[in-house]
Request: fold
Amino acid sequence: MYPRLSDLFKDLLGIELPFPIYSFGAMVAVAVLAATWLTARELDRRYRAGEIGPVRVREKDERGRVRTRQASPASLIGTMTLVAVGFGFVGAKIFHILENLDTFALDPLGMIFSTGGFTFYGGLIFGALGVIWYARKKGVPVPVLADAAAPGLMLAYGIGRIGCHLAGDGDWGIAANLAAKPDWLPMWLWAESYPKAIIGPPSQPVYPTPLYEFAMAAVLFGVLWALRKHRYRPGWLFSLYLIFNGLERFLIEQIRVNNRFDLLGLSVTQAEVIAVLLIAVGLVGLIRFWHRTEPAAVPTAEARAG
Reply:
Protein backbone atom coordinates (compact mmCIF):
# COMPACT_ATOMS: atom_id res chain seq x y z
CA MET A 1 0.00 0.00 0.00
CA TYR A 2 1.02 3.60 -0.46
CA PRO A 3 -0.01 6.02 2.32
CA ARG A 4 1.58 8.71 0.16
CA LEU A 5 0.83 8.85 -3.55
CA SER A 6 4.08 10.76 -3.99
CA ASP A 7 5.90 7.53 -3.05
CA LEU A 8 3.92 5.67 -5.72
CA PHE A 9 4.99 8.20 -8.34
CA LYS A 10 8.59 7.75 -7.24
CA ASP A 11 8.49 3.93 -7.43
CA LEU A 12 6.61 3.70 -10.72
CA LEU A 13 7.78 6.77 -12.63
CA GLY A 14 10.98 7.75 -10.88
CA ILE A 15 9.52 11.18 -10.18
CA GLU A 16 10.22 12.62 -6.74
CA LEU A 17 7.74 15.35 -5.88
CA PRO A 18 8.90 18.26 -3.69
CA PHE A 19 5.94 17.74 -1.36
CA PRO A 20 4.02 14.68 -0.10
CA ILE A 21 0.59 13.80 -1.47
CA TYR A 22 -1.28 11.66 1.04
CA SER A 23 -3.45 8.92 -0.38
CA PHE A 24 -6.38 9.38 1.97
CA GLY A 25 -6.57 13.13 1.44
CA ALA A 26 -6.26 12.74 -2.32
CA MET A 27 -9.05 10.17 -2.51
CA VAL A 28 -11.28 12.27 -0.25
CA ALA A 29 -10.74 15.16 -2.65
CA VAL A 30 -11.70 12.93 -5.60
CA ALA A 31 -14.76 11.74 -3.68
CA VAL A 32 -15.87 15.30 -2.94
CA LEU A 33 -15.40 16.35 -6.56
CA ALA A 34 -17.34 13.32 -7.82
CA ALA A 35 -20.24 13.90 -5.41
CA THR A 36 -20.28 17.63 -6.21
CA TRP A 37 -20.34 17.08 -9.97
CA LEU A 38 -23.05 14.43 -9.82
CA THR A 39 -25.22 16.48 -7.46
CA ALA A 40 -24.89 19.60 -9.60
CA ARG A 41 -25.77 17.61 -12.71
CA GLU A 42 -28.84 16.16 -11.05
CA LEU A 43 -29.95 19.54 -9.67
CA ASP A 44 -29.69 21.02 -13.17
CA ARG A 45 -31.78 18.16 -14.58
CA ARG A 46 -34.45 18.64 -11.95
CA TYR A 47 -34.39 22.40 -12.53
CA ARG A 48 -34.89 21.99 -16.27
CA ALA A 49 -37.71 19.51 -15.60
CA GLY A 50 -39.43 21.97 -13.28
CA GLU A 51 -39.01 19.80 -10.19
CA ILE A 52 -37.19 22.53 -8.31
CA GLY A 53 -37.42 26.29 -8.55
CA PRO A 54 -34.66 28.85 -9.08
CA VAL A 55 -32.55 30.55 -6.44
CA ARG A 56 -31.27 34.09 -6.36
CA VAL A 57 -27.54 34.50 -6.85
CA ARG A 58 -25.46 37.65 -6.67
CA GLU A 59 -22.68 38.29 -9.14
CA LYS A 60 -20.64 41.15 -10.51
CA ASP A 61 -21.03 42.37 -14.06
CA GLU A 62 -18.22 43.57 -16.28
CA ARG A 63 -18.32 46.98 -14.56
CA GLY A 64 -17.99 45.48 -11.12
CA ARG A 65 -21.59 46.17 -10.14
CA VAL A 66 -23.35 43.53 -8.05
CA ARG A 67 -26.50 42.18 -9.65
CA THR A 68 -29.02 39.56 -8.60
CA ARG A 69 -30.37 36.97 -11.00
CA GLN A 70 -32.31 33.73 -10.89
CA ALA A 71 -30.41 30.52 -11.53
CA SER A 72 -30.46 26.78 -11.00
CA PRO A 73 -29.76 25.66 -7.41
CA ALA A 74 -26.72 23.95 -8.90
CA SER A 75 -25.07 27.39 -8.86
CA LEU A 76 -24.88 27.07 -5.06
CA ILE A 77 -23.20 23.67 -5.10
CA GLY A 78 -19.70 25.06 -4.58
CA THR A 79 -20.63 26.78 -1.34
CA MET A 80 -22.72 23.79 -0.26
CA THR A 81 -19.68 21.57 -0.75
CA LEU A 82 -17.48 23.82 1.38
CA VAL A 83 -20.13 23.83 4.11
CA ALA A 84 -20.46 20.04 3.96
CA VAL A 85 -16.69 19.49 4.05
CA GLY A 86 -16.17 21.94 6.91
CA PHE A 87 -18.97 20.58 9.07
CA GLY A 88 -18.12 17.03 8.00
CA PHE A 89 -14.51 17.12 9.13
CA VAL A 90 -15.54 18.50 12.51
CA GLY A 91 -18.19 15.80 12.92
CA ALA A 92 -15.86 13.04 11.75
CA LYS A 93 -13.27 14.07 14.33
CA ILE A 94 -15.84 14.36 17.15
CA PHE A 95 -17.28 10.89 16.46
CA HIS A 96 -13.78 9.41 16.31
CA ILE A 97 -13.00 10.91 19.70
CA LEU A 98 -16.25 9.56 21.15
CA GLU A 99 -15.33 6.13 19.81
CA ASN A 100 -11.86 6.29 21.39
CA LEU A 101 -12.33 8.15 24.68
CA ASP A 102 -9.62 6.14 26.42
CA THR A 103 -6.99 7.20 23.87
CA PHE A 104 -8.31 10.76 23.89
CA ALA A 105 -7.84 10.98 27.65
CA LEU A 106 -4.14 10.14 27.25
CA ASP A 107 -3.42 12.78 24.61
CA PRO A 108 -6.37 15.14 23.93
CA LEU A 109 -4.49 17.71 21.83
CA GLY A 110 -2.64 15.04 19.90
CA MET A 111 -5.90 13.37 18.85
CA ILE A 112 -7.69 16.65 18.08
CA PHE A 113 -4.94 17.96 15.80
CA SER A 114 -3.96 14.62 14.30
CA THR A 115 -4.23 14.38 10.50
CA GLY A 116 -5.81 10.94 10.93
CA GLY A 117 -8.69 9.61 12.96
CA PHE A 118 -12.00 10.38 11.28
CA THR A 119 -15.33 8.54 11.47
CA PHE A 120 -17.49 8.50 8.35
CA TYR A 121 -20.83 8.69 10.10
CA GLY A 122 -19.75 11.73 12.09
CA GLY A 123 -18.86 13.44 8.84
CA LEU A 124 -22.12 12.39 7.20
CA ILE A 125 -24.33 13.61 10.04
CA PHE A 126 -22.57 16.93 10.67
CA GLY A 127 -22.11 17.57 6.94
CA ALA A 128 -25.81 16.95 6.36
CA LEU A 129 -26.77 19.33 9.17
CA GLY A 130 -24.55 22.03 7.69
CA VAL A 131 -26.03 21.61 4.21
CA ILE A 132 -29.59 21.59 5.57
CA TRP A 133 -28.90 24.86 7.36
CA TYR A 134 -27.45 26.47 4.23
CA ALA A 135 -30.18 25.10 1.91
CA ARG A 136 -32.95 26.46 4.15
CA LYS A 137 -31.18 29.80 4.27
CA LYS A 138 -31.16 29.94 0.45
CA GLY A 139 -34.69 28.59 0.01
CA VAL A 140 -33.69 25.27 -1.57
CA PRO A 141 -36.17 22.43 -0.81
CA VAL A 142 -34.20 20.02 1.37
CA PRO A 143 -35.98 16.79 0.24
CA VAL A 144 -35.30 17.53 -3.44
CA LEU A 145 -31.69 18.45 -2.68
CA ALA A 146 -31.27 15.25 -0.65
CA ASP A 147 -32.59 13.11 -3.51
CA ALA A 148 -30.25 14.86 -5.95
CA ALA A 149 -27.25 14.23 -3.68
CA ALA A 150 -28.02 10.59 -2.78
CA PRO A 151 -26.28 8.81 -5.70
CA GLY A 152 -23.19 10.99 -5.45
CA LEU A 153 -22.93 10.44 -1.71
CA MET A 154 -22.99 6.68 -2.21
CA LEU A 155 -20.24 6.79 -4.82
CA ALA A 156 -18.16 9.24 -2.78
CA TYR A 157 -18.25 6.87 0.18
CA GLY A 158 -16.78 4.08 -1.94
CA ILE A 159 -14.06 6.33 -3.35
CA GLY A 160 -13.15 7.45 0.15
CA ARG A 161 -12.71 3.82 1.17
CA ILE A 162 -10.09 3.41 -1.54
CA GLY A 163 -8.19 6.13 0.30
CA CYS A 164 -8.47 4.11 3.51
CA HIS A 165 -7.14 1.05 1.69
CA LEU A 166 -4.16 2.87 0.20
CA ALA A 167 -3.27 4.58 3.46
CA GLY A 168 -3.73 1.53 5.65
CA ASP A 169 -5.42 3.60 8.35
CA GLY A 170 -6.83 0.67 10.32
CA ASP A 171 -10.18 0.39 8.53
CA TRP A 172 -9.44 -3.19 7.61
CA GLY A 173 -11.12 -6.46 8.47
CA ILE A 174 -10.46 -9.24 10.94
CA ALA A 175 -7.77 -11.85 10.33
CA ALA A 176 -8.44 -13.59 7.03
CA ASN A 177 -9.11 -17.32 6.90
CA LEU A 178 -6.55 -18.22 4.23
CA ALA A 179 -7.68 -21.84 4.07
CA ALA A 180 -11.16 -20.78 3.01
CA LYS A 181 -10.04 -18.65 0.04
CA PRO A 182 -11.68 -19.73 -3.22
CA ASP A 183 -9.12 -20.77 -5.85
CA TRP A 184 -10.52 -18.37 -8.43
CA LEU A 185 -10.21 -15.29 -6.19
CA PRO A 186 -6.95 -13.29 -6.25
CA MET A 187 -5.16 -13.19 -2.91
CA TRP A 188 -5.21 -9.37 -2.81
CA LEU A 189 -9.01 -9.52 -2.69
CA TRP A 190 -9.03 -12.05 0.14
CA ALA A 191 -6.16 -11.04 2.41
CA GLU A 192 -3.91 -8.01 2.73
CA SER A 193 -0.97 -7.42 5.08
CA TYR A 194 -0.77 -3.60 4.67
CA PRO A 195 3.04 -3.50 5.06
CA LYS A 196 3.20 0.31 4.84
CA ALA A 197 0.14 1.10 6.93
CA ILE A 198 0.30 4.53 8.56
CA ILE A 199 -0.79 3.17 11.96
CA GLY A 200 1.31 0.00 11.84
CA PRO A 201 0.49 -3.17 9.89
CA PRO A 202 -1.77 -5.86 11.39
CA SER A 203 -0.08 -8.88 12.96
CA GLN A 204 -1.41 -11.14 10.20
CA PRO A 205 -3.17 -10.77 6.83
CA VAL A 206 -6.69 -9.36 7.14
CA TYR A 207 -9.74 -9.01 4.94
CA PRO A 208 -9.36 -5.84 2.79
CA THR A 209 -12.80 -4.54 3.76
CA PRO A 210 -12.28 -1.10 2.13
CA LEU A 211 -12.21 -2.84 -1.25
CA TYR A 212 -15.42 -4.69 -0.43
CA GLU A 213 -17.05 -1.43 0.60
CA PHE A 214 -15.96 0.24 -2.62
CA ALA A 215 -17.51 -2.57 -4.65
CA MET A 216 -20.78 -2.44 -2.71
CA ALA A 217 -20.91 1.35 -2.91
CA ALA A 218 -20.36 1.25 -6.67
CA VAL A 219 -23.23 -1.20 -7.15
CA LEU A 220 -25.56 0.76 -4.87
CA PHE A 221 -24.64 3.98 -6.66
CA GLY A 222 -25.71 2.36 -9.92
CA VAL A 223 -29.08 1.42 -8.40
CA LEU A 224 -29.68 4.91 -7.01
CA TRP A 225 -28.65 6.54 -10.26
CA ALA A 226 -31.01 4.30 -12.23
CA LEU A 227 -33.88 5.23 -9.87
CA ARG A 228 -33.19 8.99 -9.78
CA LYS A 229 -36.13 9.76 -12.08
CA HIS A 230 -38.65 8.08 -9.78
CA ARG A 231 -42.13 9.59 -9.43
CA TYR A 232 -42.43 9.27 -5.67
CA ARG A 233 -42.45 12.29 -3.39
CA PRO A 234 -39.18 14.15 -2.82
CA GLY A 235 -37.21 12.44 -0.09
CA TRP A 236 -37.96 8.90 -1.27
CA LEU A 237 -34.61 8.35 -2.99
CA PHE A 238 -32.63 9.70 -0.05
CA SER A 239 -34.58 7.40 2.25
CA LEU A 240 -33.51 4.49 0.06
CA TYR A 241 -29.94 5.76 0.25
CA LEU A 242 -30.09 5.69 4.05
CA ILE A 243 -31.24 2.08 3.97
CA PHE A 244 -28.52 1.09 1.49
CA ASN A 245 -25.86 2.90 3.49
CA GLY A 246 -26.96 1.33 6.75
CA LEU A 247 -27.20 -2.19 5.33
CA GLU A 248 -23.81 -1.95 3.67
CA ARG A 249 -22.07 -0.72 6.80
CA PHE A 250 -23.85 -3.14 9.14
CA LEU A 251 -22.83 -6.09 6.98
CA ILE A 252 -19.19 -5.03 6.66
CA GLU A 253 -18.94 -4.50 10.41
CA GLN A 254 -19.31 -8.26 10.85
CA ILE A 255 -15.81 -8.81 9.44
CA ARG A 256 -14.26 -5.45 10.29
CA VAL A 257 -11.99 -4.48 13.18
CA ASN A 258 -13.59 -1.82 15.36
CA ASN A 259 -14.03 -0.82 18.98
CA ARG A 260 -16.99 -2.54 20.63
CA PHE A 261 -19.10 -1.68 23.68
CA ASP A 262 -22.01 -3.19 25.54
CA LEU A 263 -25.52 -2.00 24.69
CA LEU A 264 -28.56 -3.71 26.18
CA GLY A 265 -26.51 -6.84 26.72
CA LEU A 266 -25.14 -6.85 23.17
CA SER A 267 -21.57 -6.25 22.05
CA VAL A 268 -21.85 -3.64 19.28
CA THR A 269 -19.81 -1.02 17.47
CA GLN A 270 -20.69 2.63 17.08
CA ALA A 271 -21.09 2.07 13.34
CA GLU A 272 -23.53 -0.81 13.86
CA VAL A 273 -25.75 1.31 16.10
CA ILE A 274 -25.79 4.22 13.65
CA ALA A 275 -26.34 1.84 10.73
CA VAL A 276 -29.44 0.38 12.37
CA LEU A 277 -30.74 3.89 13.08
CA LEU A 278 -30.18 4.90 9.46
CA ILE A 279 -32.06 1.84 8.25
CA ALA A 280 -34.96 2.65 10.61
CA VAL A 281 -35.08 6.29 9.50
CA GLY A 282 -34.87 5.20 5.86
CA LEU A 283 -37.78 2.78 6.25
CA VAL A 284 -39.90 5.50 7.84
CA GLY A 285 -38.97 7.78 4.96
CA LEU A 286 -39.91 5.22 2.32
CA ILE A 287 -43.33 4.83 3.89
CA ARG A 288 -43.82 8.57 4.28
CA PHE A 289 -42.79 9.41 0.71
CA TRP A 290 -44.36 6.35 -0.94
CA HIS A 291 -46.92 8.39 -2.87
CA ARG A 292 -46.55 9.08 -6.52
CA THR A 293 -46.48 12.75 -7.43
CA GLU A 294 -48.12 14.50 -10.31
CA PRO A 295 -45.87 16.20 -12.85
CA ALA A 296 -44.14 19.15 -11.22
CA ALA A 297 -46.07 22.38 -11.09
CA VAL A 298 -42.90 24.50 -11.01
CA PRO A 299 -42.40 26.17 -14.41
CA THR A 300 -39.61 24.55 -16.43
CA ALA A 301 -36.43 26.42 -17.25
CA GLU A 302 -37.61 26.80 -20.84
CA ALA A 303 -40.91 28.29 -19.69
CA ARG A 304 -39.14 30.70 -17.34
CA ALA A 305 -36.82 31.75 -20.13
CA GLY A 306 -39.83 32.40 -22.38
Summary: The beta strands are 55-60, 66-71, 260-263, 266-269. The radius of gyration is 22 Å.
